[in-house]
Amino acid sequence: MNISSINLVAFDNRFIETIKDYKKIHLKEGEGTYYTITANKKKAGVIGFQTEKDGNIGLKIGIHQDFRGQGVFGKALTLLAKKHTFDKIYSEVAIANIASVKAHEKVGFKRIPKKKEEELKEKGLMYKRNMMLVKNIKFQNY
Ligand SMILES: CC(C)(COP(=O)(O)OP(=O)(O)OC[C@H]1O[C@@H](n2cnc3c(N)ncnc32)[C@H](O)[C@@H]1OP(=O)(O)O)[C@@H](O)C(=O)NCCC(=O)NCCS
């Protein structure tokens, strides 16, 4: 599919359940700011963020299976960053979710130092089975 236009529109909480593995998104409605992503005017995913317990901005992302592997994630992230003013965005990803880790790295996320991860885990601010990635939004280079 040739995707020519990506947009962020009003969040649709029924559409999200049609996304394969949507439970991995860990989206808590009412606790964050979320959008439905459209690609060529069709619903293609969900993106948004919530302010985590430590004050950091945490990304929530899910792309519908029909639209994966086409760079929708990166384009939607650029749109999200244009709408909101944050310098950095964090994303907590299961270490076992290799597709997600790779996709995050592709759009410029880097894993935070292991020592910081350990501190967050000890404070109960992130799950043991996860890793924490961060992207500087101010200096986008993709
Ligand atoms: C993770 C996710 C958001 C990525 O979205 P996407 O738009 O497909 O991502 P992109 O097109 O930017 O990147 C795809 C990259 O992911 C990686 N990837 C995708 N599927 C993969 C797989 N099955 N195994 C390994 N790597 C994979 C590849 O590196 C690929 O890059 P390439 O196309 O250059 O090879 C999407 O797969 C998804 O919604 N998954 C289910 C929900 C989820 O896990 N959300 C994240 C929770 S932290």
Can you characterise this structure?
The model has no long low-confidence stretch (mean pLDDT 94). This protein has three helices and seven strands, in the order ββββαβαβαβ. β3 and β4 form a beta hairpin. It has a single domain, classed as Aminopeptidase, CATH 3.40.630.30. The strands form two sheets. The chain has a four-stranded antiparallel beta sheet, with helices on one face. With 142 residues, the chain is an alpha+beta fold. It is globular. Bound molecules: coenzyme A. The site of coenzyme A (COA) has 21 residues, from β4, α1 and α2.
Quick summary of this structure?
The protein is of the alpha+beta class.
Largest sheet: 4 strands, antiparallel
Q: Which molecules other than protein and nucleic acid are bound?
A: coenzyme A
Do you know the CATH architecture? 3-Layer(aba) Sandwich
Distance between the termini: 21 Å
Compute the number of strand runs: 7
Biggest sheet, spatial arrangement of strands = 1-2-3-4
CATH uppermost class: Alpha Beta
Rg, Å, rounded = 15 Å
Features:
142 residues, alpha+beta, Aminopeptidase, four-stranded antiparallel beta sheet, three-stranded antiparallel beta sheet, 7 strands, 21% helix, binds coenzyme A, N-acetyltransferase domain-containing protein, acyltransferase activity, transferring groups other than amino-acyl groups, Acyl_CoA_acyltransferase, GNAT_dom
